[in-house]
Amino acid sequence: MIAHRRRVLLPRLVSGWSAAVILLLEFGFFTLVLAPRNGGPHTFANLANVALILKYSSIFGIGAIGAAMVIGAGGIDLAPGAVIALASVITGHLFVIENAPLWAACVAGITVGLAAGAVSAALVVLANLPPFIATLGVMGIARGAGFLITEGRFYDLSSRLPSGTAPLGLSLAGWPGVIMMLLAAYFQLVMTRTAVGRHVLATGGNEVAARYAGVHVGRVKTFVYVTAGGLAALSGVVLAVVQGQGKADMATGYELDIIAAAVVGGASLSGGRASVVGAVIGSLIFGVLRNALAQIPGGTFADRLILGFAVLIIVVMDRLATRERA
Amino acid sequence: MADGFLLATHGLTVRYGATTALDAVDVDIRAGEVHAVVGENGAGKSTLLRAIAGTVQPTAGAIRIDARNRLAWVPQETLLPPDLRVADWIFLGRELRGRMRWLRNHAMLDGAATALRAIGCAAAPSARLGSLSLPQRKQVQLARALRAEPDVLLLDEPTAVLGETETHHLFAAVRTLKQRGTGVLYVSHRLQEVLAIADRVTVLRDGRRVSTDPVSAVDTGRLVQRMVGRDVPEHRRTDRTAGDPVLRLIGAAMAHVRGLSLTVRRGEVVGVAGLVGAGRSEVLEAVAGLRPLRAGRIERPAGCAFVPEDRGSKGLIAALGLRENVFLPVGGWFVDRARERAETQRWVEQLRIRTTGPDAPIESLSGGNQQKVLLARALRHRPQLLLLDEPTAGIDVGAKAEIHDLICQLADRGAAILLTSSDLPELLVLCDRIVALRAGEAVGAVAVDTATEEHLAALITGAGG
Predict the structure, then answer these.
(1) pTM of the prediction?
(2) Contacts by A294-301, CB closer than 8 A, 24 or more apart
(3) Nearest residue on chain B to A208, judged by CA atoms?
């Protein structure tokens, strides 16, 4: 018998575009709360701050695009945080120590992420390991490899980048947000308008049925893990160039924020449902929250706590909206 | 209860989505009687037991039972946790405990041995459930239910996987319980058995109760008439000439199936008959290329489509809509939604799929219409060879007739069809030839003009062989 999804109590609140509603409400809320009292400039709702939110959110957002696809395919990826760090280390090492050209260092960083994804995929597809265990192992290896390369140092890329570097006329700080949005648009199309996207959701929805229908389930899984690895690494490379740092202990615990962003954006951890745009919006919801809390006295100490509550509240609302019946 | 019933249902109704599985059914069980429930596949027999056992929520109606009465249910499925030991399962939730609430393992092993002996089961109490044969697993389930000495016992097709000797042991145990005053609700396909063990018999059809009589008042002929109820239209094939061979199995071995040889020609329908566990699905899965061959070879055409059994777990993807389920996998790189919608609409009309539109959620369709969605997926590629595993399991009589019709039309137009069914009359109606499997071994092939249901049943069970 097929599970019947019944819509009760609330309409579908949190998936794809409706996550955007939450983001707008949140932004409006903090605009009111943080409004200056004596007519001075607004410290939250101004263009520079929005650019800042975009820049910091994109580190999670680029990874969350991959996470949405992995989760949609019924898997999970715990490696992104470690892969972000490793990619920043590889890029930093090649650029700073080996004097490689910046583009080559970046390509190498991304390649390492693709390789990490390929290892996860091989463990899941060939060795048939549960994705949680496979990617937990890859996470440890990636993090460890970073420490082995840096031996506790960190690479200072910023001092070697010519000041005022602005590719295509856009400042370095502006690029992460642009990259995130271009990737979101591209992968949204992949997920909704290509065979790959449907096969990803079919695999996550019912792997056995997808296989019986003739979907190459192994290829689908390989695609999502390799893509997720590449995206996490891209995020790490962007971080290294824009922040000017390559460090082995960066982005610790980011994998959980990335997964949370994908889930808040409408991905179902039981597979079969995911939204790339939703995942990016999910990371923006968290980005706004972090940024705003930093402007409230004592807010930074509470931000993990509030983020934890926010994830639970949003996901519980989604559960109530699409309650499952056996 | 004061009125002499151990349990009674009043207007019991169960709906799954758009399907009404059980429609205002009244049955009752008296102390010390065996009340049999018979009906075709999809008549609502299992749903009735599930509703009484409490695993299915009734949509309407009531179940009256004295709170002191203990109830035991043996479902048709034999899915048991493979790593538990036999004794663990028999005592699960009713563990014997000693001082400090420690488990009394030895006492439970002894108790399990007694319970197993009572129904003639050879399995050791310390064996892992995963190591048992299918009949043994069924016996372990029965032993668990019988050991509890319930006041009401619900048995769902208990003998479907049992041999003759095991069935005798079971009947003896049921009669013992009966003498102690237990009321048994006994669901079975096997009418002879029902007449042998039951005191009263209820016929269900399309979820409704047709009749309840003492067994002395009925015979198999009358029961069959009531089960079927109407003149089922005969879907006789117009053209039984077979063309060139399309599929050839030569000494093929897959899973526990050994040395199977068979040929299916253009325009021919070949059936595979066998009990649960005989290897029917394994044969089809191997032909579809989903299961490795252990020996022999299979010559199959490139255009080969497979409709698996068990729509819910192997066929449909509930997270996707109707159209997306039909177009799976997507050919090529890009999804052309407009073309998919138009083509899905054509299939909806051609196969008379009752739905609100080409993008309806798959769970809003009834079982028969879901099955047609899977057929549309398979037929979209105009296959030369069609493999159908239990194509009409659990769907209503109307949809079943439509699917039979479709299968006949496809064969008349030259498709080669290999199908399995646990419904012997269905095989006899649809097929040109039937291959009988018993425990992985081909035990005979019969041409349909000479075969009878009794002959086939004897072949697949090995009775009177």
Answers:
(1) 0.81
(2) A295/A34, A295/A43, A295/A44, A296/A33, A296/A34
(3) B314
